[in-house]
Amino acid sequence: MEYATLGRSGLRVSTACLGTMNFGAPGGCDEPEAAGIVDAFLEAGGNVIDTADAYNGGEAERIVGRAVRGRRDAVVLATKAFLPQGPGPNERGLSRAHLTRALEGSLRRLGTDHIDLYQCHQWDDSTPIEETMATLDGFVRSGKVRYAGCSNFTAAQIVEAQWAAQRAGGTPFVSLQPQYSLVARSIEAEILPACRRHGLGTLVWSPLGGGVLAGRYRRGEAPGAGTRLGRLMASPMPRARAWAEGFLNEPNLTIAEHVADAAAGLGVAPAAVALAWVRRRPEVTSVIVGPRTLDQLRGNLTGLGLDLPPEVADHLDEISR
Questions:
Q1: Angular region, 149: left φ>0, alpha ψ -120 to 50, beta rest
Q2: What residues contact 199, with CB distance under 8 A and at least 6 apart?
Q3: How many C-beta atoms surround the C-beta of residue 17 within 10 A?
Q4: How far is the C-alpha of 162 from the C-alpha of 172, rounded, in Å?
Q5: pLDDT of res. 190
Q6: So what's the pLDDT on residue 297?
Q7: How many angstroms from the chain centroid is the CA of residue 292?
Q8: Phi and psi of 12, rounded to 5°?
């Protein structure tokens, strides 16, 4: 396992990050399987585990907390807040009122006295960014949070947040969680340059493009009911269905076919090629993988350790540009 410094900080993180959205989820993995995944990840040298208060009603945090008990100091524990935790108007967002309650809830579920990386899950139009950054600074000064980060922010939002922290003499963000893969490269235009300029490392999510790059879906075939995109497309929520359908377009399926061809030539799985491409991008600090099984974790770690031949990497870069 390799390690890198996270943004403009002294925090060293593994280049693989264990995502836990599947922990305790319907169609995901139960607690014994999740505990085995955590064990194998840590034994392989991984040290970053990412979760969120909204994952499966808080169950992912509870499972993670129990899985790392007794070895907490070996783990860079990351969680996120923003999404609703109840029906009330102050039970969501990035206000001081909500973040304070959300942090206490995460600490309780994780069974710890501090969060290593506390992240804003998304931008909040209804809260001044100055309030959010001042609140996060207070968490750091209290010792309950070590570092602050964000997820799914635009370039302009990153700049606003860093400027707000600078004006207040407080704690800036050290990381961003953006979506990034061979089928989702829009962050290269403005977001990654903003991260470089303002000192944010990147923990990238969905490196397999929702499973498209792993060869799980075929042109002209509906996604299987047991697949992630299949479950999302059967969801009653229009936003979830639209998100899933956005992956299954002709350009993405064409890119996936090139990935499969490259994998066949190298004698590896398509997922390994897709992960290797993301891992070697210079702007990427760590790649979030979200396995449902121990075998999937092992395959993901193999891919993250794969060195693509330059001609393969260049070809994939060109056809997905």
A1: beta
A2: 7, 8, 162, 172, 174
A3: 24
A4: 6
A5: 98
A6: 97
A7: 15
A8: -95, 130
CB 23 within 8 A of CB 283: no
Q: How far is the C-alpha of 108 from the C-alpha of 140, rounded, in Å?
A: 17
| Cβ 149 vs Cβ 173: under 8 Å | yes
Looking at residue 310, its pLDDT comes to 96
Write out residues in the chain with pLDDT < 70, as ranges. Answer: 225-226
pLDDT for the residue numbered 248 = 83
Which class is domain 3-214+275-309? alpha beta
CB 299 within 8 A of CB 271: yes
CA angle 243, 119, 248 (to 5 degrees): 15
Task: Kindly state the tokens that stand for 133.
Answer: 């950054």
Q: Output the pLDDT for position 232.
A: 73
- What is the per-residue pLDDT for 228? 73
Q: Which residues are tagged catalytic?
A: 55
pLDDT for residue 221: 72
d(CA 7, CA 150): 12
Is the Cα dihedral 317, 12, 152, 78 positive or negative?
positive
User: Measured between alpha carbons, how far is 294 from 233 in angstroms, rounded to an integer?
Assistant: 26
Mark residue 268 as left, alpha or beta (left: phi above 0; alpha: psi -120 to 50; beta: remaining): beta
Buried b (16+ CB within 10 A) or exposed e, 260-282: bebbeeeebbbbbbbbbbbbebe
Which residues are 151's β-sheet partners?
177
